[in-house]
TrEMBL record:
Keywords: Cell shape
Keyword Hydrolase: no
Function per UniProt: Involved in formation and maintenance of cell shape.
Name this polypeptide is given: Cell shape-determining protein MreC
Domain of life: Bacteria
Chain ranges of the Rod shape-determining protein MreC beta-barrel core domain: 130-270
Species assigned in the record: Streptomyces violarus
Gene Ontology cellular component terms for the protein in this record: plasma membrane
Length: 315
């Protein structure tokens, strides 16, 4: 179409008509006189628009997929990191089974003594060069842990809480030289005080210097006033040696502790004390004595040798 005066005049006229129709349509609202024409146009051009949309949608979806693929890749990377961290925390299957076994033993001890415990994992140990026998556990004030709470595991007494942070706590082990706990002999009322000696057996001073004690006797915690820092009835250890009584006011024992302070992983902090003293019910069953085989020797008498006189007569 050539650019002539008539064509420009026609274009202006069409634009004016278009604006007029738009104005009439807007003012008419739902009763617009051009509504019928619009529906007719939709009927004619609708299939064409749908076809164009169908052709364009795959392109749009592809663009969207490309845009979102980066987000999915980032999320996958995050999940892989989280899974790796989780696996590292749980460790191998053997380690997980070992921890579950330790937790089961600890819960069993807590059930026997009616102790309410908060399970914890050992995450650090104290500096050996400082002669300090301590561990750090992964529970703290936010978990209800307070200073001077008893700590135990599936074997027996571990120590007491000395320092508490928001999410961690420090435990002084029973093997530390600064550690002291009141003890009671099994099936009796002989009281004493056990002190740590590092990697050596606990040293126990019985209050009764004439108490009858022998190797293999067992001790439990006597308990403290208001059950802090120690609740009663927690297994302490087995007597391994008794010093000869010298007529003193006290008697010295050496006790092998039940807990192995160099192999601590899962422990429990006593947050709820028992309603009554469990006495000796938390102690493990006594080991059955191994029968010692006896050997019976039977001597069969041999035939007696003939006398010399008889031999000479036969000759």
């Amino acid at each position: 179409m050539r650019d002539t005066r008539e064509s420009r005049l026609l274009l202006v006229l069409l634009i004016a008509i278009a604006f007029a129709l738009i104005t009439v349509d807007i003012r008419g609202g739902e009763d617009s006189p051009v509504d019928g024409a619009r529906q007719g146009a939709a009927t004619v051009f609708g299939p064409i628009e749908s076809g164009v949309s169908a052709a364009v949608d795959p392109v749009g979806n592809a663009v969207s997929a490309i845009r979102e693929s980066g987000e999915r890749h980032d999320r996958l990377a995050v999940l892989e990191e989280e899974n790796a961290a989780l696996k590292a925390r749980l460790g191998s299957d053997d380690r997980s089974r070992s921890r579950l076994k330790q937790l089961d033993k600890t819960l069993k001890v807590a059930g026997q003594g009616q102790y309410g415990i908060k399970g914890a994992q050992v995450i650090a140990i104290g500096a050996a060069q400082g002669f300090s026998w301590t561990i750090t556990i992964d529970v703290g004030a936010n978990d209800g842990i307070k200073r001077d709470m008893t700590v135990l595991n599936g074997d027996g007494l571990v120590g007491r809480v000395t320092t508490v942070g928001p999410n961690t706590a420090t435990v002084l082990l029973a093997s530390d030289p600064d550690f002291t706990v009141g003890t009671r002999m099994e099936a009796g009322d002989e009281l004493g005080f056990a002190s740590g000696q590092g990697d050596r057996p606990l040293r126990v001073e019985l209050l009764n210097g004439k108490a009858e004690v022998k190797k293999g006797d067992r001790l439990v915690t006597f308990g403290s006033q208001a059950d802090r820092p120690f609740v009663p009835g927690v297994p302490v250890g087995v007597v391994s040696r008794v010093d000869p009584s010298g007529g003193g006011l006290t008697r010295t024992l050496y006790v092998t502790p039940y807990a192995s302070f160099t192999k601590l992983d899962i422990v429990g902090v006593v947050v709820d004390v028992p309603k009554k003293d469990p006495r000796d019910t938390v102690l493990p069953p006594k080991p059955k004595p191994t029968p010692r085989p006896t050997v019976t020797v039977t001597v069969t008498p041999s035939a007696e040798a003939p006398a010399d006189g008889q031999n000479q007569q036969e000759q």
